[in-house]
Amino acid sequence: MCLSMFVFSAVDTQAKYLTQIFDPFQVVWMRQVGLFVGVVFLLLWRGTSILKTQKVGLQLSRGACAAYRPRSLSSGCLMFRWPMR
């Protein structure tokens, strides 16, 4: 748990530093690419057996929440990026 707290704060610090240099959308995009590469590596290493679940309903609700969240986040970002007149 201490390691996960350290990694979370380190990633947050890196993101705050990198947004001073790069556009925030580039930082978020690269972070997502890194997560995708990590998942592909994990799937190649452990196989697809790690994707099996006993609680399908819970996974579907998590997926629905994850699918809705980027839309609300991106619309909020667009509102601040292009202010209303």
Walkthrough of the structure:
- This protein is mainly α and 85 residues long.
- 81% of the residues lie in helices and 0% in strands.
- The chain has two domains: 1-50, no CATH class; 53-85.
- The chain starts with a helix and ends with a helix.
- The model has no long low-confidence stretch (mean pLDDT 81).
Q: Please give the share of residues in helix.
A: over 70%
Question: What structural class do helix, strand and pairing data support?
Answer: mainly alpha
Uncertain parts: none
- For the residues shown, what is the average pLDDT? 81
Strand content: under 5%
Topology:
Layout: H1 2-21, H2 24-46, H3 56-81
Tag the structure with descriptive keywords.
85 residues; mainly alpha; 2 domains; 3 helices; 0% strand
Question: Summary?
Answer:
The protein is mostly helical and 85 residues long.
